[in-house]
Amino acid sequence: MKIKFLIKEIKIEDVAKRLNSDKVYKRIMQLWEACTNEEKKLILQVKYLSVEDTNIDKFFYDHLIMDKSFFDRIFKIVNLMDLDSNRKPLCLNWWITYIAFPLLKNEAGNPYLALVFLLGGTTHFTFNLMESFFQYQRFVPEQFRDLMKIKSEDDLETIIENAKEKHDEWLVKTKSAQLKKEAEYRKIFEDDEFKIYIPDNQQAACLLGMGTRWCTASVTSENYYDEYHKPDDPLFIFISKQNPSEKYQFHFGSGQYMDKDDQRIDYYTFEQLYEQYASVLQKYNTEIVGAGAREMYDLTFYGA
User: Closest Cα partner for 256 from 226, 202, 300?
Assistant: First the structure.
């Protein structure tokens, strides 16, 4: 039985006005001015990696306030979520209400940490959580199927973990046999550490991605396999031989290198995998021939 969820239509432009306002940028500057010079330097290192400009106050104002890079970055993340146009504004509204505004109010009393989390911090993690919420929504307790009724990131993560357990149990009982029968995939490499696969259809992406939060492995919500996988730019799935629940999915065209929880892996993990297996992967994606790990990792659609 297919469960339908009614979603109140919200325009993303209307939600965005809550964030892209002079009042918000004024509050960001107030938090900035409350930081010490050392804290300001650390914030800029987190946000911009390195800053040569000696006038850090001017640099921060020019890059964040004048060019509105804070708003643009958040808006870009939302627009590129693997969700339909009705759910994206809802996710942005949730993030503004329960993450951004409490940070702007500096409820924890630490302006430095408020800016770190606001300008970078766990933003990608939080929006990935919301993608997972809709992926497992039918397994969420009825009283929490409205995202706005979940009022903290910790509660959201707990609800998703519980829903995912129910989803995985249901998947094994009802779908695994059918997926095994219909899946088409290639094992392109195997050594003592990993098996590497290319899923050639959606069923294979679901089968190989069992136990993950990947949108390409979803069987209960919209599946985005066809949005990513292309013959000359395929999905690569790594499965650990020592621990088969440890999985990674790479897609070079979109700069997505994800762990089983659909979180982008850190550069050092990516570098290790890429350097070790680049010669294999390049046989199936000629665009990456000759490219170094740093170059490929930085080509992410999320932006800085």
Answer: 300
Query: Whole-angstrom Cα distance, residue 191 to residue 209?
Result: 20
Number of DSSP helices (H) and strands (E) in the chain, helices first: 15, 5
Q: What is the pLDDT of residues 98-139, one digit of tens each?
A: 999 999 999 889 999 999 888 876 688 899 999 999 999 999
Partners of 237 in the beta sheet? 197, 249
Range of the domain at 86: 12-165
In a domain, 4, yes or no: no
Task: Strand 185-190: give its sheet, edge to edge.
Answer: 185-190, 194-199, 236-240, 247-251, 256-259
Residue 50: per-residue pLDDT: 53
Please tell me whether residues 134 and 189 are part of one structural domain.
Answer: no
Residue 77 backbone dihedrals phi, psi, to 5 degrees: -60, -45
d(CA 170, CA 71): 39
- Tell me: do 136 and 218 sit in the same domain: no
Query: Contact at 8 Å (CB) between 282 and 289?
Result: yes
Distance of alpha carbon 23 from alpha carbon 29, whole angstroms: 10
Contacts of 166 (CB under 8 A, 6+ apart): 136, 139
Q: Which residue has the tokens 């066809």?
A: 226
Specify the residue for token string 């409820």: 107
pLDDT digits (tens, 9 = 90+) for 51-80: 555 688 888 888 777 667 778 888 888 988
